[in-house]
Amino acid sequence: MSLDHPVLSSLLPVVLLIGIGVAAGRLKLVRGEAVRDLSNLVFLVLVQALLFRTMATAQLDRLDLRSVALYYVVAGALFVALLLAFGRTSRAAVLALAAIFSNTLMIGVPLVQLAYGQAGLVHLFTLISLHALVLLTFATVVIELLLAREAAAQGSAPPRHIAATVAQAVRNAVLHPVPLPIIAGFLYSLTGLGLHPVVERPLKLLGDAFGPVALVLVGVTLARTAIGPHLKSAIGLSLLKTVLHPLLMAGAGWALGLRGLPLQVMVVAAALPVGANVFLFSQRYHKAEDLVTASVAVSTALALVTVSVVMVLLAGLG
Which pTM was predicted? Predict the structure, then answer.
């Protein structure tokens, strides 16, 4: 496989960015005490700019939602199944999110552009414009509900009626650093005003910084994480993400008559490794941080093989 191959040319920069973070962590260029501050910078500043700008500039009326809707049905079903299998805890919700949330931006965009051209990017951008809105908001509501249940079970919070628990969880989810800029951006997009360059350019610069900084941060955290104890679990979670997820998407799409480029792009998107947003989620909620960090790295390395196989099989079906 040459370096010009779409999979290698898309994944190797991600591997290198994580490697740079590992080196920075090992050389103590970034101290352990600073990791949480950097995580807050990425989660509370860079992600905000990326999500708001993405939604504020999305032309939702032009999007083809059929294949994307199926993608979210498959992802949602897999999330629920894994949540039940992992034990219905807030930690289980973070792990289930890792098995369905793809690195669509840093890896997906260059990969699809190289493999399928501009036509493929249209389908991927449709998915990206709703990716965080659907999956992260859904996961946030579930995690907040589970946290409320766990707090009540431990006696650290008084038991409440289920309706009050749901209302509080939804409130916490909406007033959360991820859904809030998405909702704000969506509402702004409805005005049709667009973003003035004076506002749009800084937002773009901040959003463009998200991927590289987040991946370097993954590497820094990885340098401080003993992967050995988590390697087996990380491989298992990575296989769920890069093998089971695309298999389910391909099967559902084929069964419902989805063919050609829409099917190919959605299956490739499902086959992508764990997205950095899941790493930030785990840090935000202090759940399975070491395992998710290891899974981001392992799934990215594993995707060099699995994504290549998926693309070859899809070409054969096409």
Answer: 0.77
Q: What is the DSSP letter of 159?
A: -
Q: Do 79 and 248 meet the contact criterion of CB atoms below 8 Å apart? A: no
* CATH number of the domain to which 80 belongs: 1.20.1530.20
From CA 5, how far away is CA 150, in angstroms rounded? 47
Q: What φ, ψ does residue 35 adopt, rounded to 5°?
A: -60, -45
Rounded CA gap, 33 and 305, in Å?
36
Output the DSSP codes for 84-124.
Answer: HHHTSSHHHHHHHHHTT-B-IIIIIHHHHHHHHHHHHHHHH
Tell me how crowded residue 23 is: count the other CB atoms within 10 A of its CB: 14
How far apart CA 158 and CA 213 sit, in angstroms, is: 40
* Count of structural domains within the chain: 1
118 part of a folded domain: yes
| Lookup: tokens for 137 | 């908001």
**Which structural domain range is residue 134 located in?**
6-317
Hey, which residues does 189 pair with through a beta bridge? Answer: none
Look at residue 1 and tell me if it is in a domain.
Answer: no
Q: Tens digit of pLDDT for each residue in 123-169?
A: 887 787 777 778 877 888 888 888 888 887 776 656 555 566 566 65
